[in-house]
Every structure is written in structure tokens, then in C-alpha cells.
Design brief:
Helix content is about 70%, strand content about 0%. It is mainly alpha-helical.
């Protein structure tokens, strides 16, 4: 049976100075972030998009593929605030459902990039024998433009949401590998790493328990900015026809469908473009605010 904690042990845990320091540090970060009004506005915009994506079934006035030719290409009005497309579908409803896809693609693609790039970066920085090999491979991938690499992967894998996320994720692996490698090289020379090595801690324990937690600040900022880049890349692939296929309401695909009507039905291109611009801008200013809040040189 598990041993019950005594009252003294509970009090000791509550008064743990390490937890107090961590709580104070987190409170300082939140305070510095809240002082940046632009970053707070970006966070609020991101929350609004996330809520629209989560509750799209309740917020959207119509189903995203609800077609009615009798209301084809209607200009924005009270019933359809963003108009209708060439199939009579509500553009506003498609934009709301499209936020779910764009946010999901952005987060999952960055997760793939961070997982693969983080592992490669940590191994490269910690094991000197593998550093040159891994970095030369990353240089080879970075020599190819991200969009061109993503198009090649997407064309090889075929259309589909998962393939789109894999294509965008793999194309950004070198960026995260270099960021993680730089941070691991910086932290690896610290005294507490030497102390952990001297008492016989394994390499993986040192990397996961000591190096990784002390390298999170720039990685978090890079992830925030990377989500914005992933959303743009996914939209670009869908615009070029390498992403999601109809009738799925992806913002890039909506831009591609609306360009043939840009002279007469301007809203078919303007509203999807605005959604991409606003969400990406919100993520960028949110990332800038996180960078400023996590930078210890800005405490004063």
C-alpha cells in the first residue's frame, strides 16, 4: 500500500522554495506580457478564432456545404453578411468552419516540425560525432525553399488533411533543429550540467530533465511564430491545388475558387484573405510579446 503523507510533509511541500520561485517567475512573465497591449490583443483574437473553430457547429448559420443555386453569387447582405459563392453556399459559414481547419493544420504541422527538429537538434548538439552529419543534412533541406519542398512532399503524398500537415511540418524541420541545437549548446556548458554528469546521470536524463526545461523560452516563441508560417504555407498549398480538395472550406482553397470572380464578386477573395491576414498577424504580435516577456534583459 502507498504510504500516506504526514502533515509535516504536506506543509514542507507547500513551503517548497523551488515552487515559490517558479510561481514568481511565471507571474513576472504574465505581468510583462500583459503590459504589451498589442500582444494581449493578438491573444484575444487568437482565442476568438479558436472559439469559432471549436463551436463552429453552433456559431455558423449554415452547414459549410449547404448548396442552393437560387442564392448563387449574392452580394453581402443581412442574411449573408459575407455573401454566397458560385454554388450558393454561405461564405461566412465556410470561413467559420475554415478556421477549424487552418488552426488544426497550423498546430499539428508545427508539432511535427518541433518533435522531429527538436530530437535532431538535441542529438546534434549533445553528441559531437553526429553534429556535422545532421547539420549538413539540415543544410541540404534548407537549400530548398520551404514552399517548393512542401509542394514536392504534398504532391508525393497526395491530397488530404493529414498529408498537408505532414508536408508543411517536414518542410520546417531544419528551422526548429537549428533553434534547439543553438539552445542546447548554450545550456550544455552550464555548471549544473557538469554536476549532473559528474554524479553519473545518463545522457538522455540530462537532456530531458535538465537541458530541455532550460531551453524552452526561445522554442516557445519560435513555435508561436511558426504556427503563423504553417497557416500561410497550408493556405498557399491549397491555393495552388496541392492541399485540401473541395468541398472542404480551407481559406487558401476559397481564395483559389474566388479568383475567377474577383472583378465582379470581390468578397469571395477579400474575406478569406482577411481571415488569413488577421490570424497570422495576431500570432505574430503574440509571438513578439512572448519574446519580450521571456527575455530576462527586459525585466527592468
Amino acid at each position: 500500500m502507498a504510504k500516506k503523507e504526514t502533515k509535516q510533509e504536506k506543509v514542507k511541500k507547500m513551503n517548497d522554495p523551488t515552487k515559490k520561485v517558479r510561481f514568481r517567475f511565471l507571474r513576472e512573465i504574465i505581468h510583462r506580457y500583459c503590459k504589451n497591449r498589442l500582444a494581449v490583443a493578438g491573444f484575444i483574437i487568437l482565442i476568438l478564432f479558436a472559439l469559432a473553430a471549436i463551436f463552429a457547429d453552433y456559431v455558423a448559420p449554415y452547414w459549410y456545404d449547404d448548396q442552393d443555386i437560387s442564392r448563387r453569387l449574392m452580394n453581402p447582405c443581412w442574411e449573408f453578411p459575407c455573401g454566397t459563392d458560385q454554388f450558393g453556399r454561405c461564405v461566412l459559414s465556410r470561413l467559420i468552419y475554415g478556421s477549424r481547419i487552418s488552426i488544426e493544420v497550423g498546430f499539428v504541422a508545427v508539432g511535427i516540425s518541433l518533435l522531429a527538429g527538436g530530437i535532431l537538434g538535441m542529438i546534434s548538439a549533445y553528441y559531437n560525432k553526429l553534429d556535422n552529419i545532421i547539420m549538413r543534412i539540415m543544410d541540404l533541406f534548407q537549400a530548398i525553399p520551404n514552399t517548393l519542398l512542401a509542394i514536392t512532399i504534398a504532391a508525393t503524398l497526395g491530397s488530404g488533411m493529414m498529408n498537408l500537415m505532414i508536408a508543411v511540418g517536414i518542410s520546417n524541420v531544419p528551422r526548429y533543429a537549428r533553434v534547439v541545437r543553438a539552445e542546447v549548446l548554450r545550456v550544455k556548458e552550464s555548471e549544473f550540467i557538469e554536476a549532473a554528469t559528474s554524479i553519473g546521470a545518463s545522457s538522455w536524463r540530462i537532456m530531458i530533465r535538465h537541458i530541455l526545461p532550460n531551453s524552452l523560452s526561445p522554442i516557445i516563441v519560435q513555435v508561436t511564430l511558426g504556427i503563423a508560417g504553417a497557416i500561410i504555407s497550408a493556405s498557399a498549398l491549397s491555393f495552388l491545388g496541392f492541399g485540401l480538395s473541395a468541398p472542404i472550406p480551407e481559406w487558401g482553397a476559397m481564395l483559389s475558387d474566388g479568383r475567377q470572380f474577383i472583378r465582379t464578386q470581390w468578397y469571395l477573395c477579400v474575406f478569406p484573405g482577411l481571415c488569413i491576414m488577421i490570424l497570422v498577424y495576431a500570432l505574430n504580435i503574440m509571438g513578439d510579446g512572448l519574446r519580450d516577456a521571456l527575455d530576462p534583459r527586459l525585466k527592468k
